[in-house]
Specification:
The chain has 128 residues and is mostly helical. The protein contains 5 helices and no strands. Pfam families: DUF2304 (PF10066).
């Protein structure tokens, strides 16, 4: 086994073990774990069968297989970034909506509290 094969297999195994541990501790949601598991399995596959990378790069017309690997890596990073940006936008909108609802509820509670103070004669005597 070459050094790059060992590095790829060990690195992917570490990623998979980390994924399982993070999922076990509820630190990572399943939809994200699935993406990272696919990446790790892909890296293991390419590390164990590098001829697949050579054949794929020949099929695409690239002279250097590493270029295909870097291109695929860039696409994966782009997709993950877009997915996280979408999730972040959704969460920002949800946070804004919740903050507005909370402000309205606080306003309503304050109004109710003031109305109770005005209609409660015992409260007026205790403050005098």
């Amino acid at each position: 086994m070459s050094g790059s094969t060992i590095l790829g297999v060990v690195g992917s195994a570490v990623i998979l073990l980390t994924l399982f541990e993070m999922m076990r501790r509820h630190r990572l949601r399943e939809k994200y774990a699935l993406i990272w598991a696919l990446v790790a399995v892909s890296v293991i596959t390419v590390a164990l069968f590098p001829v697949l990378l050579f054949e794929a790069s020949d099929a695409v017309g690239l002279a250097v297989p590493a270029n295909l690997l870097f291109f695929c890596s860039a696409i994966v990073i782009l997709v993950l970034t877009l997915q996280h940006s979408s999730e972040l936008s959704r969460l920002e909108e949800r946070t804004r909506t919740l903050a507005e609802e909370l402000a309205l509820l606080r306003l309503q509670v304050d109004r109710n509290h003031r109305a109770e103070q005005q209609h409660d004669p015992s409260h007026d005597e205790s403050t005098s």
